[in-house]
């Protein structure tokens, strides 16, 4: 996209330079036209140079035709230049809009990522706490199970002693 902008700028500068050259040439032609008119006036005073006057008139007409063509070309160049400027302006606006949209999107994604990181850290803390609680509960249950097994063993021992004593009685 930057290359397109650069190319458009270069073309714009090139057309600007061409337009300035055309204006300069128009001024020169206008100056020549004024000189030719003065010369023509002098020739009209001097009737003996009538043939020269015709040539000057033809040259003047040719120069006028050239000026007309140059003026038309200049107008066309100006229109093209304005179109290019407008297109360049629209492209730059679109580029700026896209950049702003991307900045906003990046900012939103960064904020979302930050929130997710906070959530993950909170979950990890809770998981660590739950793991410690489970270990403690498991230790308590292991101790209670050991006590229960010991009590069961004692119960069986006492029961078997009772049975033995009953048989003896």
From TrEMBL:
Coiled-coil parts of chain: 57-126
Key words, A-Z: Coiled coil, Cytoplasm
GO cellular component: centriole; cytoplasm; deuterosome
Compartments, record wording: Cytoplasm
BP term (GO), one: centriole replication
Superkingdom in the source lineage: Eukaryota
Cytoplasm as UniProt keyword: yes
Protein name, entry field: DEUP1 protein
Species this protein is from: Uria aalge (Common mure)
High-level lineage: Eukaryota, Metazoa, Chordata, Craniata, Vertebrata
């Amino acid at each position: 996209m930057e290359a397109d902008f650069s190319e458009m700028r270069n073309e714009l500068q090139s057309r600007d330079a061409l337009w300035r050259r055309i204006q300069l040439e128009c001024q020169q032609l206008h100056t020549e036209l004024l000189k030719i008119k003065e010369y023509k006036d002098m020739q009209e005073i001097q009737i003996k140079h009538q043939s020269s006057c015709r040539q000057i008139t033809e040259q003047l007409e040719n120069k006028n035709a050239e000026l007309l063509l140059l003026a038309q070309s200049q107008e066309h160049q100006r229109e093209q230049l304005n179109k290019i400027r407008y297109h360049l302006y629209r492209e730059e606006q679109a580029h700026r809009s896209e950049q702003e949209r991307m900045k906003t999107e990046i900012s939103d994604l960064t904020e979302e990522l930050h929130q997710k990181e906070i959530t993950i850290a909170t979950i990890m803390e809770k998981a660590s706490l739950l793991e410690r609680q489970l270990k403690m509960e498991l230790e308590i249950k292991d101790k209670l199970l050991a006590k229960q097994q010991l009590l069961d063993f004692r119960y069986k021992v006492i029961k078997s002693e009772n049975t033995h004593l009953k048989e003896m009685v």
